[in-house]
Amino acid sequence: MTAIIQARGLSKAYGATRALDNVSFTIPPGRIVGLIGPNGAGKTTALKAILGLTPYQGELKVLGYNPHSERQRLMKEVCFIADTAILPRWIRARELIDFVEHVHPNFSRGKCMAFLERTRIDPAMKVKAMSKGMVVQLHLAIVMAIDARLLVLDEPTLGLDILHRKSFYEALLNDYFDQEKTILVTTHQVEEIEHILSDVLFIQDGRFVLDATMDSLPARFTEVLVNPDRREQALALKPLHENSLFGKSAMLFDGVPRERLAELGETRTPGLADLFVAIMKEKH
């Protein structure tokens, strides 16, 4: 099966700062991948390289194309959304639809209008007259009307309240995604996308510190609420991270059999946000 994105030794430097530091990764088709990292970790640079917006060192193929030298051909099969809250306030919905219809060859006006009919958006409305929820719906209508093999979302729900963020991802999952499409999303709201992801990439200081499928995480990582009399025994197993919880030590372990850890205290599978915090602190 041909990879949607294939990177080998991908690097990008800005002066003395290495925004991407010799990273390699593969994203197969039909996946929803979360690219997660702190500010300045290299997420935006990785997206720019994938979208052909910046030169780079190393090997990179996106949908079989070199994104820097074959960007025009690549973008016919890619949809990129930066932030649902960012649309020109002066533009009318129908004018935005006209524009996208002219610039993207795989845009279906019929699909877009069919989605808008399920909302309260009048095509004559200007963006400045819309609520945040309506702006989300307009953006979704545009996205779901584009037959793109790769959808790239960079902080797509930034600035939206939790209800609108939830409705955005639900519509994306239920009305857009299928096994022929691949979605790459960056966000700081880790807990809100955890349930839709098939894969996760944690990036820090230009390097990937975790590249895994979501299905593989429960068998690999375990959090233990360690009984006080077992703390030294637990520390000997070299936890990734430790913090205090209800007077006990909560420790996160990587690759230690759960049955062994159960002897130390109560065990559970950590959430993605907890795992992110632990790995980021451990790598520093």
Task: Describe the structure in your own words.
The protein has helices spanning 43-50, 71-74, 93-103, 109-116, 132-144, 162-176, 190-193, 217-220, 231-235, 258-261, 272-283, and strands spanning 5-14, 17-27, 32-36, 57-62, 78-81, 150-154, 182-186, 199-204, 207-213, 221-226, 241-245, 248-254, 265-268. With 284 residues, the chain is α/β, with parallel strands linked by helices. It has two domains: 5-205, Rossmann fold, CATH 3.40.50.300; 217-283. The chain has a six-stranded mixed sheet, with helices on both faces. A four-stranded antiparallel sheet has the order 11-12-10-13. The longest helix is centred in the middle third of the chain and has 15 residues, at 162-176. The mean pLDDT is 91. This is ABC-2 type transport system ATP-binding protein. Pfam families: ABC_tran (PF00005). Keywords: ATP-binding, Nucleotide-binding, Transport. One of its GO terms (molecular function) is ATP binding.
Mean pLDDT: 91
Radius of gyration: 21 Å
Percentage of β-strand residues: 25-35%
CATH architecture of the largest domain: 3-Layer(aba) Sandwich
Number of helices: 11
- The tally of domains stands at 2
Query: From N to C, what is the helix and strand string?
Result: EEEHEHEHHHEHEHEEHEHEEHEH
- The quaternary organization reads as single chain
Question: Which descriptor suits the 3D outline?
Answer: globular
From the 3D structure, determine the CATH topology of the largest domain.
Rossmann fold
Keywords: ATP-binding, Nucleotide-binding, Transport
Domain ABC transporter: 5-230
Pfam families: ABC_tran (PF00005)
InterPro entries: AAA+_ATPase, ABC_transporter-like_ATP-bd, ABC_Transporter_VariousFunc, P-loop_NTPase
